[in-house]
Amino acid sequence: MPIERSERLFINLSILMLVIFFIAVLVSAFIGGLQVPAPAGTIDPAAINQTAPFDNPGVRELVPGKRYEVVMIAQTWAFIPGEIRVPAGSEVTFRITSRDVIHGFEITGKNANVMLIPGQISLVKVKFDKPGEHYIICHEYCGIGHQTMYAKIIVEPAPQAAK
Amino acid sequence: MHQREFARDDTYIKWQLGLGFAALFLGILMGLFQGLDRMGIDLYKYVGLKSYYQGLTIHGVLNVLVFTTAFNGAFLPYVTMRSLKRPMAIKGGSAIAFFLMLVGVLLAAWKILDNSSTVLFTFYPPLQGHPLFYLGLVLVVVSSWVTFLNILLTTRAWKQDHPGEPLPLQAFISLVTYIMWFIASLGVAIEVLVLILPWSLGIVEKTDPQLARTFFWLTGHPIVYFWLLPAYLSWYTMLPKQVGGKILSDPLVRLVFILFLLLSTPVGFHHQYTDPGVPAGWKAMHALLTFSVFFPSMITAYSVVASLEIGGRKAGGKGLFGWIWKLPWGDPVVTTQLLAGLGFFLGGVSGLINASYNINMVVHNTAFVPGHFHLTIGTAVTLTAMGIMYWLLPALTGKKLWGRGLALANAWLWFLGVLIFSRGQMAGGLEGMPRRTWMATATYLQFMETWDIPNKMTAVGGALMFLGGMAFFAVMVGTLFFSRERAKVEMPTAEAIIGPEKGSPLFTKRLDVWTVVAIVLVLIAYVPYLVNYLGDAAFVATGQRVW
Ligand code: HEM
Ligand SMILES: [Cu+2]
Ligand SMILES: [Cu+2]
């Protein structure tokens, strides 16, 4: 291929840039531990109320003050539960599925983002270091009430006793 | 020359352009509504639309499904005929393509307007639109296949008359664009014909939304290259001529388009980084491939800027950047495209963020995404198409362009508008503002002061873009009805410094080989995943009408 000198230089630079980008992504994924969501099981949306753990949505304490699991159902147009309280410094695993259409799950101020697809179970892990409030917002169009679909996370100051 | 032989196809090319730009007109009108919604101004009720989402469905379907397909289906056959100096091979092919598209658009529009198909342009099941809505979209795609076949047969016929010669560059690019699109469109064809239509007709009760998304995005990423490549065709092979420059290397341009053919199809999973039903390994593989599509775009940036520089220096430009001011900024054909290219640069950079495997989690499905694609499709492609119309309409009608000042205003208003609009959307997205949301009535809006300025920027920027768009339509209408002077305009075709004969025949002549490679790559990127997924597919979702 007849290519000019400056052009060749530019092409080589582009390739170098791509390699650097990709290494950066891999490093953050496999060394930094920033992982994208992956399959966490399937479920029949019609049988959610009879299928554990979704028959009993809510916050579960795994290691007091440290690790929590939130079992959550998304449906038009609410997250159940709609309000979650966890102490600062806790790592929370959200296990979520949808009862009807595709919904989205995103936590303001956090790198937590996953689609909720009927038939699939979604899993997201989030660490809440500081006390404060976050919102879980549905970010996929799910019908006429899409803009009203959210839940609230209240991160409470860590109790002294749990330290 | 050849005007008489082309007349038969040109008639339908004109009609198809008319259809495409009518779609764009209504599309950006809805865009204005969406922007103003962010300041609490509700215009939907005055035009009889039931909701923001009905308007958004119109916006998405008309802009990115109808306008783009209609424009490509007119522009690329036009280019093919002029570049090969022969009419299209299928007699009546242009007419068939036009009527298929027309019927398709009318069906889809009818079912959107009666609010039975407010499913947005992505129509993810289990949201369930009316069967005629899907059928309408199918016809639009089938129309594009007719155009593909027509271009393929036309280039074939040319080759038989010119054995051993490489196709002229512009015909080559038109053909590659449609080969790519044909391969890419099979995903959504399977989705609609196999999964959605039987289900929306009630023949099967349940469907698998995760599977449908996978087929959708198999088409959904490369479709952006179907939108983009005609703009690239113009930037690479026409713009240099329009600024008095030259193409650096014809074989390199061909290589770039072959790379697009190979790399744009097997990367759809990067739209599904956050889908629960796709293993992380596939996502990582598609991330790698996605980054590689950046490579031909980088070469494009270099080559196009270099050929512009040749023009600017010839006009007396000195110094590192001096040539830029010497470009013909007074010519709307040029200014639209230069600003479109500038917008594309910003859009491309923001696209790298979306594409980044895990950084994507910050912005996925937030307002950042429309911020990104209004720079790319909404500006790089649309503004270039408008710039193309500034010579194509005179070429087709023989009338001199009317309202040159308005045409320049179109370029600058749109560009300024999209900078503000996209800045607003991106800033909002980084603050967690979701996309596709009826903002004025959002119940969480009260808690989000940080969205205040982004929302205002979206509204103001969007209104400026809309004004720019109206300037464009004024020029089109003015040229058609008020232009008194005749003009003889020919398709611009730039010369190449290094001609095709210098390149290896494998790159300049063997498109068949690359087509096979492209298909194999798609199979590698999808078949193992699909086989594995189908093992425990979840056909569990019933159709919902929740709007
Ligand atoms: C006056 C010009 C335009 C304005 C003011 C405008 C404004 C907007 C706004 C505010 C949104 C909604 C974002 C949301 O709710 O998430 C949007 C979405 C969108 N726009 Fe535009 N837009 C314009 C032109 C265009 C053009 C020319 C195209 C493509 C050719 C385009 C393609 C899209 C697409 C594909 C969506 C996403 C629809 C969806 O998510 O379903 N827009 N636009
Ligand atoms: Cu929702
Ligand atoms: Cu929603």
TrEMBL record, chain A:
Catalytic activity reported? 4 Fe(II)-[cytochrome c] + O2 + 8 H(+)(in) = 4 Fe(III)-[cytochrome c] + 2 H2O + 4 H(+)(out)
**Where does this one sit in the cell?**
Cell envelope
- Domain Cytochrome oxidase subunit II copper A binding, by residue range, is 63-163
For this UniProt record, the keywords arranged alphabetically read as follows: Copper, Membrane, Metal-binding, Oxidoreductase, Transmembrane, Transmembrane helix
* The keyword Thylakoid appears for this protein: no
What Pfam families does the database record attribute to this sequence?
Answer: COX2 (PF00116)
The UniProt entry lists the main location of this chain as other
Q: Name one GO cellular component term.
A: cell envelope
Q: Where are the transmembrane segments?
A: 9-31
Quote the InterPro entries the UniProt record gives.
Ba3_CcO_II_C, CcO_II-like_C, Copper_CuA, Cupredoxin, NosZ/Cyto_c_oxidase_sub2
Domain of life of the native organism: Bacteria
Write the signal peptide boundaries.
none
Cross-referenced SUPFAM superfamilies: Cupredoxins (SSF49503)
GO terms for molecular function, please? copper ion binding; cytochrome-c oxidase activity; oxidoreductase activity
Q: What does this protein do?
A: Subunits I and II form the functional core of the enzyme complex. Electrons originating in cytochrome c are transferred via heme a and Cu(A) to the binuclear center formed by heme a3 and Cu(B).
Name of the protein this chain belongs to: Cytochrome aa3 subunit 2
Protein species of origin: Ardenticatena maritima
From TrEMBL, chain B:
Q: What is its EC number?
A: 1.9.3.1
Task: Tell me if Heme is a UniProt keyword of this record.
Answer: yes
Q: Name one Pfam family in it.
A: COX1
Q: Which GO terms describe its molecular function?
A: cytochrome-c oxidase activity; heme binding; oxidoreductase activity
What are the residue boundaries of the Cytochrome oxidase subunit I profile domain, all occurrences included? 19-508
Give the main location: membrane
Q: What's in the keyword line of the UniProt record?
A: Electron transport, Heme, Iron, Membrane, Metal-binding, Oxidoreductase, Respiratory chain, Transmembrane, Transmembrane helix, Transport
Highest taxon of source: Bacteria
GO biological process annotation, one example: aerobic respiration
For this protein, the parts annotated as crossing the membrane are 12-36, 56-80, 92-113, 133-154, 175-196, 216-239, 251-269, 289-312, 333-353, 373-393, 405-424, 457-482, 511-531
Topology in the membrane? Multi-pass membrane protein
* Matching Gene3D superfamilies: Cytochrome c oxidase-like, subunit I domain
Broadest EC class?
A: oxidoreductase
What InterPro entries does this protein's entry cite? Cyt_c_oxase-like_su1_dom, Cyt_c_oxase-like_su1_sf, Cyt_C_Oxase_1, Cyt_c_Oxase_su1_BS
Which compartment or compartments is the protein found in?
Membrane
| Cellular component, GO annotation | membrane
What family is this? Belongs to the heme-copper respiratory oxidase family.
Q: What is this protein called?
A: Cytochrome C oxidase subunit I
Q: Which organism is it from?
A: Ardenticatena maritima
